[in-house]
Amino acid sequence: MNIPAANPGAFVRAHRAEIDAAIARVLDSGRYILGPEVEALEREFADFVGAPHAVAVANGTEALWLALKALDIGPGDEVITVSLTATATVTAIVGTGARPVFVDVCPDDLTLDPSQLTGAITPRTRAIVPVHLYGQAARLPEICAAGIPIVEDCAQAHGARCDGHAVGAWGTLGAFSFYPTKNLGALGDAGAVVTADAALAERLRSLRQYGWRERFVSAEHGWNSRLDELQAAVLRVRLRYLAADNDRRWSIANAYTTALRGTGLTPPPSFPHRSCVYHQYVIRHPQRDRLRDRLAGDGIATAVHYPQPVHRQPAYRQDVPLPVTEQAVGEILSLPLWPELSGAEIQTICESLVCLP
Ligand SMILES: *Cc1c(COP(=O)(O)O)cnc(C)c1O
């Protein structure tokens, strides 16, 4: 058996007729950008998150970037975030002209460590960008207690909750990616920003289309970050399955955790008030590469999210001590996990795990 590390085609195969119908509807409509499908997706996704407004944009990086720009963040400002994340989190911050200030993560769930904030906040701090890494909601009550605007990076955590509220609804703004492999994924690039603030939502609608408030007249310098009707129509199909798909991810994760018992490997932690939607199932071991080879020998592909923390990458290098982050990157390993994994595939993975390390 050969099991890939990710499988974005599995959803399409499982729901092909519905996706074909959604695409056909757009083809026949004659509207291809920012039309009724995008508007419907914005309403439905806002409902899913429990946020009053959602603004669809072209991708997750621009969702973060435009969210920061809507807060007027720019040169001279500082934005606190983590280094153990997709490069895109930092790309967006640097794109505004602000300086990213890296703090370390908690040793258990590898999300932003709130106890690091006091030492990182300065008079220039304009926002904190916590990342709900691998689908695990970060420690939002403690992070929000800092009293600084929060832009949540929700790219890996559609539907994850903290104290009963979905991520994205906690911060001033929440940025989502709909990249194909995310829990809610399009057939190309897509993203959205959610917020409770009507004025910020209006600002985002303007920023995503040349800074227009009325057609052909730019009220401010904006961008083109519009979403296609085709992507919106496909996302609406996928959104209908998202809650069930997240449940399925949770059951598969449970099967892996059971298989890991007694192996000496550390499964991802779980918390009573902060749920995880298992975008990734990440195990940790000091001899990660050996484990990776063993699994590959059983036909199981794995991935490392991420092999280089952002503050060690040439474009964003900073000499800051982040010991928990540095240790984690040498130990983390993401197992295959998507809702359409078959019973036989899950069994193969579990049998291979039982024999590790
Ligand atoms: C995927 C991802 C992004 C970027 O989203 P794109 O749609 O690829 O631009 C940002 N942050 C995190 C944590 C991600 O996983």
Commentary on this structure:
There is one protein chain. The chain is of the alpha/beta class and 357 residues long. It folds into 2 domains: 9-236, 3-Layer(aba) Sandwich (Aspartate Aminotransferase, domain 2); 242-354, Aspartate Aminotransferase, domain 1 (Alpha-Beta Complex), CATH 3.90.1150. The protein is 38% helix and 14% strand. The protein contains 12 helices and 13 strands. Strands 1-9-8-5 form a 4-stranded mixed β-sheet. It has a 3-stranded parallel β-sheet with strand order 3-2-4, covered by helices on one side. β6 and β7 form a beta hairpin. The longest helix has 32 residues, at 229-260. The chain starts with 8 loop residues before the first helix and ends with a helix. Bound molecules: pyridoxal-5'-phosphate. Pyridoxal-5'-phosphate is lined by residues 59-61, 85-86, 88-89, 131, 153, 155-156, 177, 179, 189, 191.
List the helices and strands and how they pair.
Blueprint lengths: L8 H6 L1 H14 L6 H14 L3 E5 L2 H11 L7 E5 L4 H9 L3 E5 L13 H4 L4 E5 L10 H5 L6 E3 L7 E2 L2 E2 L6 E5 L13 E5 L2 H10 L4 E3 L2 E2 L10 H32 L20 E4 L3 H10 L25 H7 L2 E4 L7 H12 L3
Parallel strand pairs: 2-3, 2-4, 5-8
Antiparallel strand pairs: 1-9, 6-7, 8-9, 10-11, 12-13
Helix pairs in contact: 2-9, 3-9, 4-5, 4-8, 9-12
The protein binds pyridoxal-5'-phosphate (PLP).
Pyridoxal-5'-phosphate (PLP) binds next to α4 and α5.
